[in-house]
Amino acid sequence: MIEIMNPTQLLRAKDTGALVADILQELKQRSTVGTNLLDIDRWAQAMIVEAGALSCYVDYAPSFGRGPFGHYICTSVNDAVLHGRPHDYSLADGDLLSLDLAVSLGGVVADSAISFVVGEAQPAESLAMIDATERALRAGIAAAGPGARIGDISHAIGTVLSAAGYPINTEFGGHGVGTTMHQDPHVSNTGRAGRGYTLRPGLLLALEPWIMADTAKLVTDADGWTLRSATGCRTAHSEHTIAITDDGAEVLTLPKHARAAG
């Protein structure tokens, strides 16, 4: 299913996107050495509930997971990259943490992810990976607009990631959003320009470049959810929800300081 949002829904999408961005930034500030992943999950729950929003994850039970996810946010550490299920783990100095959050507010969903290094240790390799996903995300957004094709976005993202020397997994990528979290069209993190669905104003897309340092192969944790690099290498993940407009694309999940600057 591909949904095209009406003007009222687009206004709600902006509110949802701002909420997701603000929660992620608050959680980033709170995530310090010694912070437990279960505390991050509880903090996310409290902020979602306080805002009158709904979690897209608690009851999420797709075919590739093991039962309902049962938590409010994905917390992926070091070699974990997607669907990191919060568990009893306290963050250490230098850990690379990815937070992925999707909520519904006013009946419209927004989805975003950030990666950052915890503490004072800031390994250059980890920072380079995060930078690559952020640059790829910007390239994907720049390629989006009315009349563009999904393949244009995929090609833009993949060009940046490949140039940075990272293998690209095509099992999981970006996707449409709307009244539900995961919709068509699928947005691969590499592809051929000029191919695929033609973008239309009112379409919401979650673009999410993610990489593993030296492999494109994933393995699933014993929890049935957390996806890790097959080699144990570090990973990074960046994601924004965008709305296709009449003249381009608007990022809905920008942090507050970026929204103010815009």
From TrEMBL:
Its EC number is 3.4.11.18. GO terms for molecular function: initiator methionyl aminopeptidase activity; metal ion binding; metalloaminopeptidase activity. A divalent metal cation 1 binds at D100, D111, E239. InterPro entries: Creatinase/aminopeptidase-like, Pept_M24, Pept_M24_MAP, Pept_M24A_MAP1. Its cofactor is Co(2+); Zn(2+); Mn(2+); Fe(2+). Removes the N-terminal methionine from nascent proteins. The N-terminal methionine is often cleaved when the second residue in the primary sequence is small and uncharged (Met-Ala-, Cys, Gly, Pro, Ser, Thr, or Val). Requires deformylation of the N(alpha)-formylated initiator methionine before it can be hydrolyzed. Monomer. HAMAP family: MetAP_1. This is Methionine aminopeptidase. The gene is map.
